[in-house]
Amino acid sequence: MKNLIRKQKIDVEKQRQQLEQKRIEEIQKLNKEQVTSVKPSQNLPDKPEVKDKAQEKEQALLEKNKLEKEVVAKKQELEKRRLKKEELVKKRALIKAKREKKKALAKKQKLLEQQRKKKLQQQNIPKRKVASSLSYIRKGKFYEGLAKAKKPNGKWGFVNKSGDWIISPVLDSAGNFKNGKAEATLQGQKGYINRYGQWDKNGKW
Q1: Contacts of residue 13, Cβ cutoff 8 Å, sequence gap at least 6
Q2: Contact in structure between 61 and 27 (CB atoms under 8 Å)
């Protein structure tokens, strides 16, 4: 498309130059004829054939000027089309760049989410390890079906009403469950634990 527009512009320029050269030649020829046709007596009326010829020359010049204007108008139209096409290409490139940026951001967010889930899985505490009620020495009240219990080694966990360990006793400290989570300290770090034994510093899973 660009090559076609460039070729059209070259053709238009050539036509304009040819027309300009012809117009100059016609003017020079007309001036030469007028000079040679002048007689010593300037008061004599012009011959009809000389007058008609001058009118024909003038009409030819008017037509050439008209054609030249048409060539210029066509050139301007081609320039407008070129600018419009360039603007359209820029707009499409901008839209494509926005889409690529949005796609890259979504990919980055997905990767961060996968990393967060992987980290949570690594922090998961073993759960539902069945043990006798004699395996703990202290038990709190039941909240949301679970009660905190402490083993002789000082570690806390959670048991159900049947006395089975739902969350193994590996916590340094534990609170009561509320809204599906309980405050807990694991390896010296304070955070929260849910009913599935997943621990997180901010309580977000």
Answers
A1: 75
A2: yes
Q: Is residue 18 part of a domain?
A: yes
**63 vs 31: CA distance, rounded Å:** 18
pLDDT tens digit sequence for 12-54: 777 878 887 887 888 777 777 665 654 444 454 555 566 677 8
Residue that has been written with the tokens 């609170």 in this structure: 175
Number of domains into which the chain is organized: 2
Give pLDDT, residue 122.
Answer: 60
- The angle formed by the CA atoms of residues 138, 143 and 147, to the nearest 5 degrees, is 25
The sign of the dihedral angle between the CA atoms of 169, 175, 176, 179 is: negative
Helix (H, G, I), strand (E, B) or coil at 196: coil
Paired tokens of 161: 């009403």
Domain coverage including residue 16: 2-35+54-106
- 125 vs 83 pLDDT, higher one: 83
* Strand spans (E) along the chain: 138-139, 147-150, 156-159, 165-171, 173-174, 181-186, 189-194, 199-200
